[in-house]
Amino acid sequence: MVKLNGKPVELRVPSRMGYEKVAMGTAASVAKLMGFPDERIEDLKTAIAEACINAIEHGNHLNENLCVGVTLSAHDDSLEVKVLDDGAGISKLPPRPDIDRKMHGEEDARGMGMFLIQALVDEAEWVKDSKGHGSYVRLVIRLDKETD
Amino acid sequence: MQIETKTSVDHISDGNGERVTVLRFSGDISSGSHDALLGTYQTVNKSQPVLLDFSKVEYINSSGIALVIQMLMEANKNGQKIAAFGLTPHFQKVFTMVGITKYASLYADEAAAKASV
């Protein structure tokens, strides 16, 4: 395991679909250096991809003049990720997706990103900037969590 | 940055000589995959079971999963059986989390999926 404590890794990606994979790849590299097992790296990749997609689509409304910021901070036993956009953030979390309602057309087939984020990482919180200048999602994934 | 989804359509026989359609996907399964998934599904014979081959897919996001659900909705209306194979263990877990396994069984490989229909 490589000790990465110190300055966070930061990147900015354009608000265009597909660029979430740049964040995924960077996060996977950092997590690998920290010694995360492959299964947890896969969880992290999906969670970061979904957070970036939300930021690109709902936060920055696909405006390619705006960037999505990603900050990866390595701690002794965890990796903390922040995904920042220029949007107003969310007031409340959406309900858990219901496959039966989706299958019967009573619920949008989409709308699973935040559920997946919460299910795949150890901590997830959505934070609005106190001055109204954007928002971010903060994710934490721990090294010592037992894999499924 | 998104890798285009490609779909090929195969027709195979199950152990009883019945025809089975196999949709083989490659590339990304994401918001840009509408035509590759739903467009292709519209062309298949609705009286035959369908297998979804994800073995050459490396990236799936929630928008892509939503398209899979829309395909399952159509199949459900048609009374058509669908099974999937070739998903990585991670995406098997994700599909299970969102409840897809209630409407489509997941198998490790084509032989197991074919035997199920």
3D architecture notes:
The complex is a heterodimer of chains A (148) and B (117). Chain A is of the alpha+beta class and 148 residues long. In chain A, 34% of the residues lie in helices and 24% in strands. In chain A, strand 2 (67-74) and strand 3 form a beta hairpin. Chain B has 117 residues and is α/β, with parallel strands linked by helices. In chain B, 36% of the residues lie in helices and 32% in strands. A five-stranded mixed β-sheet of chain B has the order 1-2-3-4-5, with helices on both faces. In chain B, helix 1 (34-43) runs parallel beside helix 2 (62-77). The radius of gyration of chain B is 13 Å and the shape is globular. The chains are: A alpha+beta (148), B alpha/beta (117).
Query: Roughly how many Å apart are the termini of chain B?
Result: 36 Å
- Please state roughly what percent of the residues of chain B sit in beta strands, choosing from under 5%, 5-15%, 15-25%, 25-35%, 35-45% or over 45%: 25-35%
Secondary-structure-derived class of chain B: alpha/beta
Instruction: Give the neighbour order of strands across the main sheet of chain A.
Output: 1-2-3-5-4
Strand content of chain A: 15-25%
- Our Rg estimate of chain B from Cα atoms comes to 13 Å
Count of discrete alpha- or pi-helical segments spanning 4 or more residues of chain A? 4
| Low-pLDDT residue intervals, each spanning 5 or more residues of chain B | none
For the largest beta sheet of chain B, what order do the strands appear in spatially?
A: 1-2-3-4-5
N-to-C SSE string of chain B, H for helix and E for strand: EEHEHEHEH
Please estimate the helix content of chain B. 25-40%
State the assembly state of the protein chains.
Answer: heterodimer
Average pLDDT of chain A, to the nearest integer?
Answer: 92
Q: Could you give a short account of the major beta sheet of chain B?
A: 5 strands, mixed
With helices defined by DSSP (H or I, 4 residues minimum), what is the helix count of chain B? 4
Low-confidence stretches of chain A: none
Question: Which overall shape of chain A is indicated by the principal axes computed on the Cα atoms?
Answer: globular
